[in-house]
Design goal:
Layout: E1 2-5, E2 20-25, E3 32-36, H1 49-57, E4 60-64, H2 83-98, E5 104-108, H3 110-121, E6 128-132, H4 140-149, H5 162-165, H6 169-181, E7 200-204, H7 215-223, E8 228-231, H8 240-243, H9 245-259
Parallel strand pairs: 3-4, 3-5, 5-6, 6-7, 7-8
Antiparallel strand pairs: 1-2, 2-4
Length: 260
Amino acid sequence: MTRSELTQEKVNTQSVSKINWVSVGDQSSSTCIIFLHEGLGCIEMWKDYPETLCNALNVRGIIYDRAGYGHSPGSLEGRTKEYLHDAANELAQFIDHFNIDSPILYGHSDGGSIALIYAGTYPDKVKALITEAAHVFNEPETIKGVLEARPWFDEGKMEGLRKYHGDRYKEVFFAWNDIWIDESFKDWNITDLLPNIICDQIIIQGEDDQYGTLLQVETIKSLTRGSTTTLTPEKCGHAPFKEQKEIVLKEAKKFLNDII
């Protein structure tokens, strides 16, 4: 796993030039999978999953910390209901820096929503999509799950985030927790972008996901226009690639072998 830092000229005030990223897999491959982490996540929280998948397929993978996460500079304070669209814009700038032609996007949770926003905005620039636990609208079950997680910080259950985000771990937790229960976000919805998505995709969500129902999967499948495969593993919550790694890895490899 090789760690790098972008060094190209800044494209705006929140530059991606200092974004922390790593590259895995076959560096000579013309196929690139970009992995997009969850709302509390970062590069390290993917563990060895991206490297395992990319090595199995002999393709290149890129994982990065979004601004304000992990080892990337930036602040998550003052987050607005447009934060996922802002992250999709950051992804667009990141892809431009690498000059990647038709990447495959693999997004988990917030990362899945970001992948969908990007693919719905730039449909001709995405080869394929894999999403895990992506949201396309806020729903009561999401708010319930987020509210139930809120006491975890005071109970010390989120101390593990310090390992990944350093002293910003509190900012990371409450940036995620606050926005999903904020009044301005209750009607958040990106379903208008879904009919623009024309690439093939696999939609993954655990049957026991505490932050969303399978209506998310059904909505994405029904409104997008590419060929769609769904995977809803049993005994699985919000992180299928961790909780049901073997099943998810098998299906992801099968799907991407056909794409590649």
